[in-house]
Amino acid sequence: MRKIVCTILTLILYLLVFMPQADGQIGFFENRPLDEPRFDIDLAAFKTAQEDKVELEVYYKIYNDGLKFFKQDEDFVAHYEINVVILGEDNRQLTGTSVERYYKLSNYPDTRNPNDFLINLVNLKVGKGKFKLVCKLIDKHSEKISPIEREFEIQRLFDKKTDISSIEFIRETLPLDSIPTRFDKGEKRIIPAVTRVYGADIKQVSFYVELYHEADKSFDGRLIFNIENQQGKEKYEDQFEVTLDKPITRFIKHISLEDLLPDDYTLQIDLENNRGKEISTTSADFTIEWSLEALIRNDFDLAVEMLKFVARQDDLDKLRDAEPEDRLEAFEEFWKEHDPTPATPENELRMKYYQRIKDANRLFSSIHRKGWRTDMGMIYIIYGEPEQVESHPFELNSKPYQIWYYYSLSRTFVFVDEIGTGDYELQYPYDGRRGFIDDRIDDYD
């Protein structure tokens, strides 16, 4: 242990004296070029007439500002191609499809709106096994390509007499009209959510499943709905009595998100008979993004603690002393007092601070702690993304470590994975200076 400490201290002194040029990599920050076509994908599997295949629906969501539009008569038109390939475990192509489509908008501002999008889907048939989906969005006007790869597994072919499909998270349901679409299921038009990410403006999670029953006699049972967080703690439970008397019974359910904190969750649906025996089960993950209102309502102490990198102690004490009915107003007043541009409708500091907390949770969460509580998360929240990262995960004479350089701030930080769990700890004496983070909010960023 003494040898490791000496090695790290010697390394820090070397760095402070020589300060190498920025030739390292930032291997764990996911950055996509701003002008690259932006899109998301999702999957759901349903029963087919073929016993050895399932119907795989691949949903895609393309954001307007990621496409190039040209004026055509009175409209603005984008031209894109979606290319989908399914690879087997040996990385050989099993199936695939490619479609070209045009996307029309009536005015130019909509073409640059990052919050507007189109949603569509393609269908493929696959068997049982582990697969890799490779999906490419090709902007035919700019010739730029954006890829997404996702591994998935088909564990069931829905070949039991009574079974349940996978879960399709839905954005909205619409009535059918005279023109059929790929989204039509039974008597409803099901628009997929695609991202499975829910924020403050979405009050519920909605999903669609199909229940299959191929038998002369009807089936009486129940659906059990359970939501757990990543720590395995149950956050929601409900059940619904069902009678299955036809080959396909379509089921839509909405669950309120008001009592769920921002976190990653797993939704599990169990189909049981009326004696409590499990017949089939399916599950899927979803995420609730950070919402100050929800956090204050459900875990006020955590909401206050999250301000520790940016607030003075007297600010924190004042917030903790607020009456329950005044808590949201107290938070709004705190951020109003620390708005760098009061004349604008947005508080840029607040937006930046909470975005960094979200990023820290995504980048640095370990089995022990959420990312914002880690040492890496703390430095990231306070100083932002480092200008250079040296990563040393496999060293013979020391434990895994990383070095973060902030050249413009003349600061360097060293982190060591002391116990091999991926939770890197900040090493003293930090960047060689006396003291550490000034708790005055004016020094933030």
Characterize the structure shown.
With 445 residues, this protein is α+β, with helices and mostly antiparallel strands. The chain has eight helices and 23 strands. The strands form five sheets. Strands 9, 10, 11, 12, 14 and 17 form a six-stranded antiparallel beta sheet that branches. Strand 7 and strand 8 form a beta hairpin. The longest helix is centred in the N-terminal third of the chain and has 17 residues. The N terminus and C terminus are likely disordered.
Chart the SSEs and their pairings.
Layout: H1 2-18, E1 39-47, E2 54-63, E3 70-72, E4 75-87, E5 93-105, H2 108-111, E6 117-126, E7 129-139, E8 145-154, E9 162-164, E10 168-175, E11 184-185, E12 188-192, E13 197-198, E14 204-213, E15 219-229, E16 234-244, E17 248-256, E18 263-273, E19 278-288, H3 292-298, H4 300-305, H5 313-320, H6 327-337, H7 348-364, H8 375-383, E20 388-392, E21 401-406, E22 411-416, E23 425-426
Parallel strand pairs: 13-19
Antiparallel strand pairs: 1-2, 2-6, 3-4, 4-5, 4-7, 7-8, 9-14, 10-12, 10-14, 11-12, 14-17, 15-16, 15-18, 18-19, 20-21, 21-22, 22-23
